Amino acid sequence: MPSKFRPIGAALLALLLNVFSSPAFAAPLEAEGVASIPDGGLARARQVAIRDALEQLGLRSGARVDVAAGASTGGKTFESSRVQPTADFERYTVLREWQTGALLHVRIAVKEEDARPRGSVHLGYKKKIVVTPFHVRRSPQLDDVDDVAIRLPQELLRRMAASGKFLGKESAYVISPGLSGPSADTAAVRRLASMYESQFVVSGEIIDAGNFEQPAYYGLIKKDARRIELAFYVHDGLTGVLLARRTALVEQVGERRVGRDKPFGSASFAATLFGGAILRALDEGIAAISADIGALPFMAKVVQVQGERIFIDAGSTASAAPGDQLVIYRLDPRQQVHGADPRVPLGTLEAPVGTLSIVQVQPGFAIGTVTPPAAARQVSAGDMVRFDVAVMPGR
């Protein structure tokens, strides 16, 4: 005869198993972070070490891996890659802290249930751009718009930076357009890009802002109208060559004047019919050139070499992170490639030197080491590092 206590015992056993297998009783996750201690900078080193440990724990909870196309030289292949955690931990406990020489070690613990999805995991590198004042073909047409040659590119820069994909600077220098529109002065473009430490130079023209009469009601009457036609030019800062040329045209029927009392890009400016038309044309151009630039590789420049440590001019503000790997390229200015016009180079031959592994990041720069280590002797300021378009995104 079955015992009447057996069902109760089975239920109790199931309850105990469920309790002890609950995530609330899961063992904490631990990781050890390491950071170098600068002179008098123990607090700073502690922050860096804790961030290193949190990054490791985030990777354990899942990661996104991007691997870019490899470059090879002398039988060696170099690949760019970046690994990004898919989770963050807002709370942690410091278990132990100790020093070994000039290094600070910090061991922390977190609870797995405290993991939070990392919102920025899919963000790519932010590319540096410099925007110049726009050329106005017919200045009298725009006497009702406040300082449009400067204010329009400033608004372009603000909107592109707000997208989270670009780091922008404003130039006080104009690149004079050529007869066909974009400047053919590649040397001026290169100087400007170097001056503002930018990968791309964006310039443009206001081609037309004229009034006209537009037929309406099957041509029975005519209505006052005005058009705005903008041209946008994207130049490569390294070679000075034109990469993209885009135009935007918007026509607006109705009130044709804006008024210089309305600051460019302000709510009062946008509320006017023609002011709104200008901003729509601007957004159309921004969408086009953002797509053009977005399809191109991210590049940064080597600015210092200190033994085995390589400094580049891209840091956390550009979304660089410890663990990222970029290929270092040496450019040979003696081997420029020309097309039909011998005065305008298409580019410069380059050779991969090694792989830069980023180990430390500051807002404006990052420090890395080179693989193979012997290649560090071949790296010098002015060399480029690049993350090519990813061909194998992690899942």
Q: How would you describe what is shown here?
A:
By secondary structure, this protein is an alpha+beta fold. The chain has helices at 6-20, 42-60, 148-162, 186-195, 267-271, 273-294; strands at 29-36, 63-68, 71-73, 76-78, 81-85, 87-89, 93-100, 103-110, 115-117, 127-131, 135-136, 166-170, 200-208, 211-216, 221-236, 242-253, 298-306, 309-312, 325-338, 345-361, 366-371, 384-387, 390-393. Strand 17 (298-306) and strand 18 (309-312) form a beta hairpin. Helix 3 (148-162) crosses helix 6. Mean pLDDT is 81; it is low at 1-8, 11-24 and 389-395.
Quickly describe the structure.
The protein is of the alpha+beta class and 395 residues long. It has six helices and 23 strands. The strands form six sheets. Strands 10, 11, 12, 13, 14, 15 and 16 form a seven-stranded mixed beta sheet that branches.
Key descriptive features of the protein:
23 strands; disordered C terminus; seven-stranded mixed β-sheet; alpha+beta; 22% helix; 395 residues
Helix-strand blueprint:
Layout: H1 6-20, E1 29-36, H2 42-60, E2 63-68, E3 71-73, E4 76-78, E5 81-85, E6 87-89, E7 93-100, E8 103-110, E9 115-117, E10 127-131, E11 135-136, H3 148-162, E12 166-170, H4 186-195, E13 200-208, E14 211-216, E15 221-236, E16 242-253, H5 267-271, H6 273-294, E17 298-306, E18 309-312, E19 325-338, E20 345-361, E21 366-371, E22 384-387, E23 390-393
Parallel strand pairs: 10-12, 10-13, 11-13
Antiparallel strand pairs: 1-8, 2-5, 2-23, 3-4, 6-9, 7-8, 13-15, 14-15, 15-16, 17-18, 17-22, 18-21, 19-20, 19-22, 20-21
